[in-house]
Amino acid sequence: MLKVDHLNASYGEMQVLKSISITVEQGSIVSVVGSNGVGKTTLLKAISGIIPSKGIISFDGEVLNGLPPHRIVGRGIIHVPEGRKIFPDMSVIENLMMGAFLHRNTCKQNLDRVFELFPRLAERRKQSGGTLSGGEQQMLAIGRGLMANPRLLLLDEPSLGLSPIFTDTVFRTIEQIRKSGVTVLLVEQNVFRSLSISDQAYVITNGSVVLNGSGRELLENPEVKRAFLGR
Ligand SMILES: Nc1ncnc2c1ncn2[C@@H]1O[C@H](COP(=O)(O)OP(=O)(O)O)[C@@H](O)[C@H]1O
Ligand SMILES: [Mg+2]
pTM of this prediction? Predict the structure, then answer.
C-alpha cells in the first residue's frame, strides 16, 4: 500500500533521513521505533508532504513526492501529529468536525464510530479541548483523524506522556482501528508495546533502518532487547 524507497530528508545542512526504505501492507500495523531524535517524526512529515524529501514515496503505486499536504490527505493518508495539536478553545465536537471538513456526507457515521471507540469523548462532547486530560486529548486527536476517513493513519507518539491506563487504551484502540479496516503506521518510543501489536516493524538509528522484521521477531531480537527493553 505504502512504499518508502531510499528516502532522504534534511533540515538545512543537517541530513536527518538517510536512505530509509519501509513497506506498509494494506490492513497491517507497522511500527517505526527508535530513540529520541533519530528521525521518526521527520519520516511521517515527509510522507504527509509537510517537508520535502528525496527518494520515492508511493501509495497504491502512485508517487506522492511533490504533492502538497492537502492532496496527500485527499488520498486518505491522515497524520495524527506528535503532541496531539488539538484546538484548545474549541469543544470536543468542534475539534472532531475539523477533521471532517472534506467529508460532510460521512460525518454522522464517523462521529458515531468515534464516540463508540471513545465513550469518554461522547461524555465530554461540549467541553473545550484544552480542559481535557492528556489521555483524553490524545483520544480527541485520534478521533479527529478518524473523522477524515483515513485509509492509512500515521500516528506519531500517541502514548507519549500518558498514564499506564491511557497507554493501555491507546494501544487497544490502535488494534481496534486496524480491525475496522484502517492501515496504521505507528511511530513510538514505547518499543515493547508497539512491537507487541505490530505485524512488521523497523528500528531506526540516526536516520537509517538498522533492523526490521515482524513485531514478534524483533521482540525476541537480542539487540532490541538490550537497546530498548532493558534486558
Ligand atoms: N524543524 C526542524 N529544524 C531543524 N532540525 C530539526 C527540526 N525538526 C527536527 N529536527 C532535528 O532532526 C532530528 C530528528 O528529529 P525528529 O524526526 O523529530 O526525531 P524523533 O521524532 O525520532 O524524535 C533531530 O536531531 C532534531 O533535532
Ligand atoms: Mg518525534
Answer: 0.95
